From TrEMBL:
Keyword Signal: yes
Stated name of the protein: DUF4468 domain-containing protein
Keyword Signal: yes
Top-level lineage group: Bacteria
Naturally occurring in which organism (per UniProt): Mucilaginibacter dorajii
Pfam families the record matches: DUF4468
Domain DUF4468: 34-121
Signal peptide: 1-19
Keywords (A to Z) from UniProt: Signal
Length: 198
């Protein structure tokens, strides 16, 4: 019986440690960040860079992410993206707004790291046609969100940020394990067609 209790305590403490490791934190700039460093033995820097670049170009929905910096010599990829978050209400879940973020991937031989940071919330409002549109000029950095947003909404936004970061982090890990797609070879020679014979 003691062995079972000790094993249960060990498993629970391991889960708590894992949960603490895989969560949002603050970086040296006091910005909210989701950070992971991954060992990838047997892969060189160039391979990891190419797979990271392929991930950034293919993994995100069209129009929701763009690559802003690609430096192969330093092994750095940076991009900006956004996703929609719901607003909690008693009657229904409506669109709360959009959260923009920055993602960075850095690669070295046999390892890479990535992080999501610079989370900024931009609320939606109804326009005169009844459509949900972004409110221009109203942006809230998530570090200040606790003071400026409703507590329930803020909690939902943080959960959505963590979920989105975990989802794309897991997808990045899968992309880093598999081969990148090779570019298609396009035959650029012009073919001649005879209209006299058929």
């Amino acid at each position: 019986m003691k062995n079972i209790i000790v094993a249960l305590v060990f498993v629970l403490s391991a889960k708590v440690a894992l949960a603490q490791k895989d969560s949002l934190a603050f970086d040296e700039r006091n910005k909210c960040i989701y950070y992971q460093a991954i060992e990838q033995p047997g892969l060189i820097k160039d391979t990891l860079f190419n797979r990271g670049a392929y991930f950034m170009s293919k993994a995100f929905p069209k129009g929701k992410f763009k690559v802003t910096k690609s430096d192969e010599a330093k092994g750095v990829l940076t991009g900006e993206g956004s996703f929609i978050v719901p607003k909690r209400s008693l009657i229904s879940n409506s669109l709360g707004g959009e959260i923009t973020y920055t993602m960075q991937i850095e690669v070295k031989d046999a390892k890479y790291r990535y992080w999501f940071t610079d989370f900024v919330f931009n609320p939606y409002k109804r326009d005169r046609y009844g459509m949900e549109v972004l409110t221009p000029g109203v942006n809230t950095a998530m570090e200040k969100g606790k003071d400026m947003l409703d507590k329930k909404d803020f909690s939902v936004y943080l959960d959505k940020i963590l979920l989105n970061s975990r989802q794309y982090g897991g997808l990045l890990k899968a992309y880093m394990l598999k081969m990148s797609a090779k570019p298609k070879v396009v035959d650029k020679t012009i073919k001649k067609i005879s209209t006299k014979e058929w």
